[in-house]
Design goal:
five-stranded mixed sheet; alpha/beta; single chain; D-Maltodextrin-Binding Protein, domain 2; globular; 2 domains; six-stranded mixed sheet
Length: 330
């Protein structure tokens, strides 16, 4: 009797195990596919801006890969932080964001009251593309080369002005870093965006600024602005004819703007990994490389880990400038 009872017990345990396994397998097989509705890419800048153009370039190939529509939505304001906050708080598992450096690095350092923490509330997906900035000046700027121009800037003290798209932007922090390294002291004048900065330079209201290569090259080739140098240790393929600022004696100055994809921290790991793989694959395709290059980007298409490493490095670099110059946004 005891032996029969033990045998029956063993059979019952095995049956339960088989049943549990079958249920788990069934649950896996019947689990809702992802995505099961349109995926939204949130952009914090207006239509026609660089992040917007990048997001829209990915929408169609990403839609084909996922089998669902991909919709780009613009939620403009606060240098992209309104959109970043929206993404950080999304809970539908179908919302991601196309963001710039500041949204994912130093936003909270600049404004402690910011309603999201980029390092805690955003999940890195992929670093899409990078680009140095170009130091430009009006056509009548002094000096026949970068070294002579920087010497004139040092001599002018705070009589010169430089323009940026706003306090805390990479253009602003980059100029503050350049001021420290080149030992010059021009005053900061914030504008609504890079196009307005370029217009002020052409009008002679500003003496220098850091502009994205696509905008800078257009004005330089049109004979409206003078190129001084790019913010990299070597020349950039985006503007190969423009010397690096290191050639003018500005050492250890390597600054880039970038576009990246991030998701809410609560997006399931499986979906995040899939998105990272797709964005990387699409970004590195010959067609997308060419399209983004024409928009002024050197394509990287990194893994989530690659973006995470870049976020940490830039947070340290730009955070150091914020601390040393006591830069804040109220």
């Amino acid at each position: 009797m005891r032996r029969n009872a033990a045998t029956i017990a063993t059979l019952l345990v095995a049956a339960c195990a088989l049943s549990t396994g079958a249920i788990a397998q069934k649950d896996t097989e019947t689990a809702a596919p992802w995505p099961n509705r349109p995926l939204r890419i949130i952009v914090g800048f207006p239509g026609g801006s660089s992040p917007d153009l990048t997001a829209r370039a990915f929408a169609d190939p990403l839609s084909k890969a996922l089998g669902q529509p991909v919709i780009v939505e613009n939620k403009v304001g606060a240098a992209g932080n309104i959109a970043a906050d929206y993404v950080a708080k999304a809970t539908d598992d179908h919302t991601i964001g196309l963001m710039i450096n500041g949204n994912m690095t130093i936003a909270k350092l600049l404004n402690p009251k910011l309603p999201y923490d980029p390092l805690k509330d955003l999940q890195p997906i992929s670093l899409i593309g990078v680009s140095p900035l170009v130091l430009v000046a009006p056509l009548n700027a002094p000096g026949s080369n970068a070294a002579e121009f920087l010497a004139a800037a040092r001599k002018s003290g705070d009589k010169w002005n430089y323009g940026t798209p706003g306090v805390g932007t990479v253009g602003h922090l980059g100029m503050e870093l350049l001021k420290a390294k080149a030992k010059m002291a021009p005053l900061h004048v914030p504008y609504a965006g890079y196009p307005q900065v370029a217009t002020a330079l052409i009008a002679g209201d500003l003496q220098l600024s850091l502009l994205p290569p696509a905008l800078a090259n257009a004005q330089i080739k049109a004979g409206k602005l003078k190129a001084i140098g790019v913010t990299a240790s070597v020349r950039s393929p985006l503007a190969p004819e423009i010397p690096s600022l290191s050639e003018a004696g500005v050492k250890d100055f390597n600054l880039e703007i970038w576009n990246a994809v991030a998701a809410p921290h609560n997006l399931p790991k499986r979906e995040a990994v899939r998105l990272a793989s797709l964005f990387s694959e699409i970004a590195r395709s010959p067609e997308m490389r060419q399209k983004l290059f024409q928009q002024g980007w050197t394509v990287l298409g990194t893994s989530a880990e690659g973006l995470s490493n870049r976020v940490k490095a830039d947070t340290a670099l730009l955070g150091g400038i914020i601390t040393s110059q006591k830069i804040t946004i109220d």
